[in-house]
Amino acid sequence: MKFFIDTANLAQIKEANDLGILDGVTTNPSLMAKEGIKGNDAILNHYKTICELVDGDISAEVLSTDFESIIEEGKKLAAIHPNIVVKVPMIKDGVKAIKWFTDNGIRTNCTLIFSAGQAILAAKAGATYVSPFLGRIDDSGWDGVQLIEQIANIFAIQGFKTEILAASIRNANHIIRCAEAGAHVCTCPLDSILGLLKHPLTDIGLAKFLEDAKKM
Ligand code: E4P
Q1: Which InterPro entries match (predicted)?
Q2: 50, 110, 168: which to mutate for ligand 1, most atoms within 8 A of CB?
Q3: What is the pTM of this model?
């Protein structure tokens, strides 16, 4: 399973990249706004900086919602760097645009996936990734990991090449359950990635080893 970090914060991206386990980055308009990135040039520059920091797929989201504008915006984003993956929302014009990008050699990440039907449609259009938002499904009282499992089964049965990018991860346990459920990628906040490190018995064990090492 690949690990992406889900942030536009450069310090966090660097920290995850320094761990040596990072395969890419996802962003979205809310994450960009949180970092105070405003205006077209600043947005494009920020994506360029991220591409220079991390050698992996970098999702850059279009803000347009009609076919022609999605294509224009997506072309500009894709021109920033070969590692850019154009992130397109799961709407009718988005599906049409994903098909156009696929036919024209531009990779895509279909975002805001909340059902298996949406994932099938995006895969049929040739999306490189589909992003089911499992945390938001959990927040609504349903089971997000179940959706990852269902999509993984369908894609395996149907032979779809589209990768499942589990998104809206809230904790380390989500990452483990996504790995079990067959997600190809998890995009996570830094805290959830670092959460995988933690176990009290590791801390107790290390403290004891260091204590005993003084007697060596
Ligand atoms: C995915 O690419 C999105 O950026 C993201 O995972 C959304 O997660 P949230 O529900 O924490 O906003």
Answers
A1: Aldolase_TIM (IPR013785), TAL/FSA (IPR001585), Transaldolase_3B/F6P_aldolase (IPR004731), Transaldolase_AS (IPR018225), TSA/FSA_arc/bac (IPR033919)
A2: 168
A3: 0.96
Mutational pocket test of ligand 1: of 28, 59, 137, the residue with most ligand atoms within 8 Å of the beta carbon: 28
What is the dotted CATH code of the domain comprising 2-213? 3.20.20.70
CA of 152 to the centre of ligand 1 (A): 19
**For residue 202, how far is its CA from the centre of ligand 1 (angstroms)?**
31
Cβ(14)–Cβ(48) below 8 Å: no
- The yes-or-no answer on residue 87 being catalytic is yes
pLDDT digits (tens, 9 = 90+) for 18-58: 999 999 999 999 999 999 999 999 999 999 999 999 999 99
